[in-house]
Design brief:
The chain is of the alpha/beta class. Helices cover about 35% and strands about 25% of the residues. It is globular.
């Protein structure tokens, strides 16, 4: 194991930015806030960025956690994070988005889905609202099946399967995502009510079941095209998403 030999001053700086959230079992270590200037539709917007790591170990001796980082090979495993805008802790009303990572849509701009659009538009909506948070959930690729499995599901979709059929044909349930850790982080950052940007009633249910005060829901449809029409219709017809004007499940 490689041990990080930190100067006392360095450890003191890092400790100021680390929070411990105990889970059962283990803990979440939350790092931030970190100033993050973001190019959003041609304008620079300043967000505050946090990232978190799950560990079996529960300790407030953060030197122990840091000592393990170099040998933990974290680059092989994705970590989730959250972008905060405005006075998220204290504002009376805040807009949040629980966004599932989409390698193809968020990074490459794929139009097979609407994820890339939802990512940028939710950030814009948060800025216009005045305060909010975008949770970027790294273990949610392909509704929780992972990137490699998603690639195989895409092959099936190119051969006539819809999104749900493809996932189930590979042995997965329609939606395997879990929001527990994101909810724990949200509770650490804010105790006041939030409004959720989503078309998915399962997300609302997860938030409410966790005891979060929810003031309402804001839909997030858009970027409909010939490439994702069937995908959007399947969300409504098969996965229970709440429809919006312009998205006709009977097309």
């Amino acid at each position: 194991m490689v041990h990080a030999k930190l100067e006392p001053k360095v450890l003191e700086v890092l400790k100021e930015k680390i929070q411990l959230i105990e889970t059962d079992p283990g803990a979440i270590y939350l790092v931030g806030p970190i100033k993050l200037p973001v190019n959003l539709y041609g304008e620079t917007v300043i967000f505050q960025w946090y990232c978190w790591l799950n560990q079996c170990q529960v300790t407030e001796d953060y030197q122990e956690i840091i000592d393990q980082l170099a040998s933990a090979n974290l680059a092989e495993y994705q970590q989730s994070s959250v972008l905060i805008y405005g006075d998220f802790e204290n504002a009376d009303d805040a807009l949040i988005r629980m966004h599932s990572i989409c390698h193809t849509g968020d990074i490459f701009g794929s139009k097979r889905c609407d994820c890339g659009y939802q990512l940028k538009q939710s950030m814009q909506n948060i800025v216009e609202h005045g305060t909010g948070a975008l949770f970027y959930l790294a273990n949610h690729e392909g509704r929780g099946i992972g990137l490699f499995s998603k690639a195989m599901a895409y092959v099936l979709q190119e051969n006539g399967y819809d999104t749900v059929e493809a996932n189930e044909s590979l042995g997965f349930v329609d939606d395997a995502r879990n929001y527990d850790d994101a909810i724990r982080v949200l509770k650490k950052l804010r105790t006041k009510p939030v409004k959720l940007m989503t078309n998915n009633p399962r997300k609302l249910e997860a938030m409410r079941n966790a005891g979060l005060p929810i003031t309402g829901r804001e839909p997030l449809w858009g970027d409909k095209s010939e490439f994702n029409e069937k995908y959007l219709q399947t969300k409504i017809k098969r996965s229970g998403h709440l429809g919006e004007e312009g998205i006709d499940p009977n097309d």
